[in-house]
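Why do we care about 3D structure at all? Because function follows from shape, and shape follows, mostly, from sequence. That is the central idea of this module. The next example makes it concrete: a single protein chain, its amino acid sequence, and then its structure expressed as tokens.
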Amino acid sequence: MIPNFEWSLRSYLKDWKRPDKPTQLYYLAKISRLAMSQFKYKSDVLDNLFLIEKYLWTDGRVMIWKSDVLGWIITRCMETGYNINGLANRWKPILDMETSGNIIPTPELGLDDDCVVIYDIPNRMCTSSLCTVWIEEIADINETIKSQVFLQKTPMIAVCDNPKDVNILKKSIIDIKNNIKVLFVGKDFRSDLKTLKMDAPFNISDLQAQLKTKESEMLEFLGIDSQSAFQKKERLITAEQESNGQLLTYLLNDRYESRKSGIDRLNEKGCQISIEKVSLADPNSSITGGQDETDQAIQTNNR
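And the structure:
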């Protein structure tokens, strides 16, 4: 039985009509940097450890396997076999760069081989990067805010009956745009400069609040606390604070335990590696949903 649904950031980005989406790309870069900075790995066997979080973020899974040519390496992979529950039990590595002459073979590997496939979260049908679906809406809110700011910056309209006076009025509008202190015009032009009335509501504060709400949704999905200590103290009652902390702990631990399970299996297969949760506030400490974690590093085999 093969799962009939699978989501990944890589496939989602293919549907974006780029490259003319700077706001979306900005928020994608922002959330990606945060998501790929939550866990730290250490290993004397593997190189380029950053690839683990890169592939988990973009693909939802990463394959760490022993190549006959290069030893233990980190690559993408595709599922090629499933058990009776529809869970993958065989995979084929995918190399980002094609090798000339097929120097590095990519065999199909299973659970008993020298390979481990780590999934971003235990539920293999979706990944943490699913939170990026909010980016389109966040970008749309930003564009609305930009439009309102633009309308506030252009409050004048010039109506000129005499074509000869167009350049004079144009210069006057430019002076207004450049925030000139005093504007001098002839009395013949007084009736030509008119205030442009805006019917659209100016609700930037509400839009910014909505934008922050969507950002918080993305961060919460990753198990990151996006509320400041002041907000917690002033706006949330004790029960709400505890509930929010528990939710963040569950969401972060869901990702962590999936990684830890894979790390344990790697150590059992002879690939020494450790993992720890990293606080975004203090890179040298560990966190669990914003709470201190005493067990900072998980390593099942002593080197």
